[in-house]
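Hi everyone, sorry if this is the wrong subforum. Our group has a chain we'd like a structural model of before ordering constructs, and none of us has done structure prediction before. Sequence below.
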Amino acid sequence: MMALFTILPVPHSASAIDESTARTLTSITGQQRRLDAVLRSQDLIDGVRAHLDLALRARQHAGHHAASIAAAVSEAAGFAAWLSMDMLDLGSARGYYRQAIASARDAGNSLLAAYMTGSLAAFEIDAAADPLLGLAMLKEARTFLNRGPESSTPTAWLESLEALAHASGPRRDEFASTQALLRAERAIETADGPPPWPWVYPFDHAKLARTRASVAVRLGQGEAAARAFAESLPSPQPAPKQAALTILEVATATCQRGEVEDAFRLALGALDTGITLRSERVLQQARQFRYDYSGPVNPTITRFDDRLRTTLV
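Answer:
Right subforum, don't worry. Here is the predicted structure as C-alpha coordinates:
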Protein backbone atom coordinates (compact mmCIF):
# COMPACT_ATOMS: atom_id res chain seq x y z
CA MET A 1 0.00 0.00 0.00
CA MET A 2 2.75 2.45 0.91
CA ALA A 3 4.53 1.80 -2.37
CA LEU A 4 1.47 2.95 -4.29
CA PHE A 5 1.57 6.35 -2.62
CA THR A 6 5.31 7.00 -2.83
CA ILE A 7 6.00 6.29 -6.47
CA LEU A 8 7.35 9.77 -7.14
CA PRO A 9 11.10 10.01 -6.45
CA VAL A 10 12.22 12.70 -4.04
CA PRO A 11 13.77 15.52 -6.04
CA HIS A 12 17.21 16.82 -5.07
CA SER A 13 17.25 20.01 -7.11
CA ALA A 14 14.99 22.42 -8.91
CA SER A 15 15.95 20.78 -12.20
CA ALA A 16 14.18 17.60 -11.06
CA ILE A 17 10.85 19.46 -11.00
CA ASP A 18 8.99 20.14 -14.23
CA GLU A 19 5.46 21.01 -15.31
CA SER A 20 4.35 17.38 -14.89
CA THR A 21 5.27 17.12 -11.20
CA ALA A 22 2.19 18.88 -9.85
CA ARG A 23 -0.05 16.83 -12.15
CA THR A 24 1.55 13.62 -10.85
CA LEU A 25 1.10 14.65 -7.23
CA THR A 26 -2.52 15.64 -7.86
CA SER A 27 -3.16 12.37 -9.68
CA ILE A 28 -1.93 10.38 -6.67
CA THR A 29 -4.27 12.34 -4.39
CA GLY A 30 -7.10 11.55 -6.80
CA GLN A 31 -6.31 7.84 -6.68
CA GLN A 32 -6.30 7.95 -2.89
CA ARG A 33 -9.68 9.69 -2.87
CA ARG A 34 -11.15 6.91 -5.00
CA LEU A 35 -9.88 4.33 -2.51
CA ASP A 36 -11.72 6.17 0.26
CA ALA A 37 -14.95 4.67 -1.08
CA VAL A 38 -13.82 1.10 -0.34
CA LEU A 39 -11.12 1.30 2.36
CA ARG A 40 -11.11 2.37 5.98
CA SER A 41 -9.63 5.77 6.74
CA GLN A 42 -7.30 4.06 9.23
CA ASP A 43 -5.87 2.00 6.35
CA LEU A 44 -5.39 5.02 4.10
CA ILE A 45 -4.06 7.68 6.43
CA ASP A 46 -0.42 6.52 6.62
CA GLY A 47 -0.09 6.51 2.84
CA VAL A 48 -1.79 9.87 2.57
CA ARG A 49 0.55 11.39 5.16
CA ALA A 50 3.53 9.96 3.30
CA HIS A 51 2.27 11.44 0.05
CA LEU A 52 1.72 14.82 1.71
CA ASP A 53 5.26 14.73 3.11
CA LEU A 54 6.56 13.92 -0.37
CA ALA A 55 4.63 16.85 -1.86
CA LEU A 56 6.06 19.17 0.79
CA ARG A 57 9.61 18.04 -0.01
CA ALA A 58 8.96 18.51 -3.72
CA ARG A 59 7.80 22.03 -2.97
CA GLN A 60 11.16 22.84 -1.36
CA HIS A 61 12.82 22.27 -4.74
CA ALA A 62 10.03 23.60 -6.95
CA GLY A 63 11.69 26.75 -8.27
CA HIS A 64 9.37 28.56 -10.66
CA HIS A 65 6.92 25.63 -10.38
CA ALA A 66 6.30 26.51 -6.71
CA ALA A 67 2.72 27.72 -7.24
CA SER A 68 1.51 24.54 -8.96
CA ILE A 69 3.25 22.35 -6.35
CA ALA A 70 1.68 24.41 -3.54
CA ALA A 71 -1.76 23.74 -5.04
CA ALA A 72 -0.98 20.01 -5.08
CA VAL A 73 0.10 20.23 -1.43
CA SER A 74 -3.21 21.94 -0.62
CA GLU A 75 -5.21 19.11 -2.17
CA ALA A 76 -3.17 16.44 -0.38
CA ALA A 77 -3.56 18.23 2.97
CA GLY A 78 -7.29 18.64 2.38
CA PHE A 79 -7.68 14.90 1.88
CA ALA A 80 -5.61 14.16 4.99
CA ALA A 81 -8.01 16.44 6.86
CA TRP A 82 -11.00 14.56 5.45
CA LEU A 83 -9.66 11.20 6.62
CA SER A 84 -8.74 12.59 10.05
CA MET A 85 -12.27 13.94 10.41
CA ASP A 86 -13.71 10.52 9.55
CA MET A 87 -11.54 9.03 12.31
CA LEU A 88 -12.68 11.81 14.70
CA ASP A 89 -9.08 12.95 15.05
CA LEU A 90 -10.37 16.50 15.18
CA GLY A 91 -7.11 18.20 16.11
CA SER A 92 -5.28 16.67 13.16
CA ALA A 93 -8.19 17.43 10.82
CA ARG A 94 -8.17 21.11 11.80
CA GLY A 95 -4.39 21.29 11.38
CA TYR A 96 -4.48 19.70 7.93
CA TYR A 97 -7.26 22.01 6.79
CA ARG A 98 -5.25 25.04 7.88
CA GLN A 99 -2.24 23.67 6.02
CA ALA A 100 -4.44 23.24 2.95
CA ILE A 101 -5.63 26.86 3.20
CA ALA A 102 -2.11 28.22 3.65
CA SER A 103 -0.82 26.23 0.68
CA ALA A 104 -3.70 27.42 -1.50
CA ARG A 105 -2.82 30.99 -0.58
CA ASP A 106 0.83 30.35 -1.42
CA ALA A 107 -0.32 29.00 -4.77
CA GLY A 108 -2.11 32.29 -5.41
CA ASN A 109 -5.31 30.32 -6.06
CA SER A 110 -8.19 32.20 -4.45
CA LEU A 111 -10.82 29.63 -5.47
CA LEU A 112 -8.83 26.77 -3.94
CA ALA A 113 -8.35 28.84 -0.77
CA ALA A 114 -12.09 29.54 -0.66
CA TYR A 115 -12.82 25.82 -1.13
CA MET A 116 -10.47 24.70 1.65
CA THR A 117 -11.66 27.44 4.00
CA GLY A 118 -15.25 26.45 3.30
CA SER A 119 -14.33 22.83 3.97
CA LEU A 120 -12.87 23.87 7.32
CA ALA A 121 -16.09 25.77 8.02
CA ALA A 122 -18.13 22.64 7.23
CA PHE A 123 -15.88 20.68 9.60
CA GLU A 124 -16.40 23.19 12.43
CA ILE A 125 -20.16 23.28 11.88
CA ASP A 126 -20.71 19.54 11.68
CA ALA A 127 -17.89 17.38 13.04
CA ALA A 128 -16.61 19.82 15.67
CA ALA A 129 -20.11 21.11 16.56
CA ASP A 130 -18.97 24.75 16.66
CA PRO A 131 -21.29 26.67 14.31
CA LEU A 132 -20.08 30.08 15.50
CA LEU A 133 -16.53 29.27 14.48
CA GLY A 134 -17.93 27.83 11.26
CA LEU A 135 -19.62 31.15 10.50
CA ALA A 136 -16.34 32.97 11.07
CA MET A 137 -14.59 30.64 8.64
CA LEU A 138 -17.33 31.21 6.06
CA LYS A 139 -16.72 34.95 6.31
CA GLU A 140 -13.04 34.31 5.60
CA ALA A 141 -13.90 31.99 2.70
CA ARG A 142 -15.93 34.75 1.07
CA THR A 143 -12.94 37.09 1.17
CA PHE A 144 -11.04 34.58 -0.97
CA LEU A 145 -14.03 34.08 -3.23
CA ASN A 146 -14.28 37.80 -3.88
CA ARG A 147 -10.75 37.77 -5.34
CA GLY A 148 -11.56 35.28 -8.07
CA PRO A 149 -14.01 35.08 -10.97
CA GLU A 150 -17.66 35.09 -9.98
CA SER A 151 -19.33 31.68 -10.11
CA SER A 152 -22.66 30.40 -8.86
CA THR A 153 -21.47 27.07 -7.43
CA PRO A 154 -18.98 28.40 -4.84
CA THR A 155 -21.45 31.09 -3.77
CA ALA A 156 -24.38 28.67 -3.43
CA TRP A 157 -22.20 26.17 -1.57
CA LEU A 158 -21.02 28.72 1.00
CA GLU A 159 -24.57 30.00 1.50
CA SER A 160 -25.78 26.44 2.08
CA LEU A 161 -23.09 25.96 4.74
CA GLU A 162 -24.21 29.18 6.41
CA ALA A 163 -27.77 27.85 6.47
CA LEU A 164 -26.54 24.72 8.25
CA ALA A 165 -24.54 26.79 10.74
CA HIS A 166 -27.57 28.89 11.69
CA ALA A 167 -29.65 25.72 12.15
CA SER A 168 -27.04 24.01 14.34
CA GLY A 169 -25.96 24.32 17.94
CA PRO A 170 -27.89 25.60 20.95
CA ARG A 171 -28.78 28.99 19.39
CA ARG A 172 -30.64 27.96 16.27
CA ASP A 173 -31.84 30.78 14.06
CA GLU A 174 -34.50 29.58 11.62
CA PHE A 175 -34.90 33.01 9.99
CA ALA A 176 -31.16 33.42 9.29
CA SER A 177 -31.01 29.87 7.98
CA THR A 178 -33.94 30.49 5.63
CA GLN A 179 -32.36 33.68 4.32
CA ALA A 180 -29.11 31.86 3.55
CA LEU A 181 -31.05 29.17 1.67
CA LEU A 182 -32.79 31.87 -0.38
CA ARG A 183 -29.43 33.43 -1.27
CA ALA A 184 -28.17 30.00 -2.34
CA GLU A 185 -31.29 29.58 -4.49
CA ARG A 186 -30.67 32.91 -6.20
CA ALA A 187 -27.04 31.98 -6.87
CA ILE A 188 -28.10 28.69 -8.49
CA GLU A 189 -30.56 30.50 -10.72
CA THR A 190 -27.72 32.64 -12.10
CA ALA A 191 -25.60 29.62 -13.10
CA ASP A 192 -23.83 30.34 -16.37
CA GLY A 193 -21.56 27.39 -17.04
CA PRO A 194 -19.66 24.52 -15.44
CA PRO A 195 -18.31 25.00 -11.90
CA PRO A 196 -14.71 26.16 -11.51
CA TRP A 197 -12.06 23.79 -10.18
CA PRO A 198 -11.76 22.53 -7.43
CA TRP A 199 -15.55 22.08 -7.53
CA VAL A 200 -16.22 19.00 -9.66
CA TYR A 201 -20.02 19.14 -9.78
CA PRO A 202 -22.31 22.17 -9.89
CA PHE A 203 -24.18 23.04 -6.71
CA ASP A 204 -27.66 22.65 -8.15
CA HIS A 205 -31.27 22.52 -6.91
CA ALA A 206 -30.99 18.85 -5.92
CA LYS A 207 -27.95 19.56 -3.74
CA LEU A 208 -29.67 22.56 -2.22
CA ALA A 209 -32.64 20.32 -1.41
CA ARG A 210 -30.21 18.06 0.45
CA THR A 211 -29.11 21.07 2.51
CA ARG A 212 -32.71 22.10 3.16
CA ALA A 213 -33.36 18.60 4.44
CA SER A 214 -30.40 18.78 6.83
CA VAL A 215 -31.56 22.18 8.05
CA ALA A 216 -35.07 20.85 8.64
CA VAL A 217 -33.71 17.88 10.60
CA ARG A 218 -31.72 20.22 12.84
CA LEU A 219 -34.80 22.37 13.38
CA GLY A 220 -36.94 19.33 14.22
CA GLN A 221 -39.14 19.67 11.12
CA GLY A 222 -39.57 16.03 10.14
CA GLU A 223 -42.19 16.51 7.40
CA ALA A 224 -40.24 19.29 5.69
CA ALA A 225 -37.08 17.21 5.91
CA ALA A 226 -38.78 14.23 4.26
CA ARG A 227 -40.00 16.38 1.34
CA ALA A 228 -36.58 17.92 0.86
CA PHE A 229 -34.80 14.55 0.97
CA ALA A 230 -37.15 13.34 -1.78
CA GLU A 231 -36.27 16.41 -3.88
CA SER A 232 -32.54 15.72 -3.41
CA LEU A 233 -32.63 12.25 -4.98
CA PRO A 234 -31.51 13.39 -8.47
CA SER A 235 -28.16 14.59 -7.06
CA PRO A 236 -25.09 12.31 -7.54
CA GLN A 237 -24.90 9.52 -4.98
CA PRO A 238 -22.24 10.20 -2.34
CA ALA A 239 -19.51 7.77 -1.30
CA PRO A 240 -20.56 5.10 1.23
CA LYS A 241 -19.45 6.93 4.38
CA GLN A 242 -21.15 10.16 3.39
CA ALA A 243 -24.21 8.21 2.26
CA ALA A 244 -24.41 6.59 5.71
CA LEU A 245 -24.42 10.03 7.34
CA THR A 246 -27.21 11.10 5.02
CA ILE A 247 -29.21 7.96 5.81
CA LEU A 248 -28.88 8.71 9.53
CA GLU A 249 -30.33 12.16 8.87
CA VAL A 250 -33.18 10.57 6.92
CA ALA A 251 -33.69 8.21 9.85
CA THR A 252 -33.81 11.17 12.23
CA ALA A 253 -36.44 12.88 10.09
CA THR A 254 -38.40 9.62 9.92
CA CYS A 255 -38.28 9.32 13.69
CA GLN A 256 -39.44 12.93 14.05
CA ARG A 257 -42.54 11.97 12.04
CA GLY A 258 -43.24 9.15 14.50
CA GLU A 259 -42.27 6.30 12.15
CA VAL A 260 -39.91 4.69 14.64
CA GLU A 261 -39.72 1.20 13.10
CA ASP A 262 -38.74 2.53 9.67
CA ALA A 263 -36.32 5.00 11.24
CA PHE A 264 -34.36 2.31 13.05
CA ARG A 265 -34.32 0.05 9.99
CA LEU A 266 -32.67 2.88 8.05
CA ALA A 267 -30.27 3.64 10.88
CA LEU A 268 -29.29 -0.02 11.15
CA GLY A 269 -28.17 -0.03 7.52
CA ALA A 270 -26.09 3.11 8.06
CA LEU A 271 -24.60 1.61 11.22
CA ASP A 272 -23.53 -1.48 9.27
CA THR A 273 -21.69 0.75 6.80
CA GLY A 274 -19.98 2.55 9.66
CA ILE A 275 -18.88 -0.75 11.17
CA THR A 276 -17.68 -2.21 7.87
CA LEU A 277 -15.58 0.86 6.99
CA ARG A 278 -14.82 1.66 10.65
CA SER A 279 -15.93 5.25 10.21
CA GLU A 280 -15.79 6.74 13.69
CA ARG A 281 -17.79 9.71 12.44
CA VAL A 282 -20.64 7.48 11.25
CA LEU A 283 -20.53 5.46 14.47
CA GLN A 284 -20.68 8.61 16.57
CA GLN A 285 -23.67 9.84 14.57
CA ALA A 286 -25.38 6.48 15.01
CA ARG A 287 -24.86 6.68 18.76
CA GLN A 288 -26.29 10.21 18.80
CA PHE A 289 -29.33 9.02 16.83
CA ARG A 290 -29.93 6.38 19.49
CA TYR A 291 -29.37 8.77 22.41
CA ASP A 292 -31.93 11.18 20.96
CA TYR A 293 -34.67 8.54 21.04
CA SER A 294 -36.27 7.82 24.43
CA GLY A 295 -39.47 6.01 23.43
CA PRO A 296 -40.51 2.36 23.73
CA VAL A 297 -38.11 -0.35 22.55
CA ASN A 298 -39.15 -2.78 19.82
CA PRO A 299 -37.25 -5.74 18.26
CA THR A 300 -35.69 -3.53 15.57
CA ILE A 301 -34.35 -1.14 18.20
CA THR A 302 -33.02 -4.09 20.17
CA ARG A 303 -31.14 -5.29 17.07
CA PHE A 304 -29.79 -1.78 16.60
CA ASP A 305 -28.64 -1.64 20.23
CA ASP A 306 -26.97 -5.05 19.98
CA ARG A 307 -25.16 -3.99 16.82
CA LEU A 308 -24.13 -0.69 18.38
CA ARG A 309 -22.64 -2.46 21.38
CA THR A 310 -20.29 -4.41 19.11
CA THR A 311 -18.58 -1.11 18.22
CA LEU A 312 -17.48 -0.68 21.84
CA VAL A 313 -15.57 -3.97 22.02
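For your construct planning: The chain has three domains: 1-8+19-108, 109-236, 238-313. Residues 1-14 have pLDDT under 50 and may be disordered.
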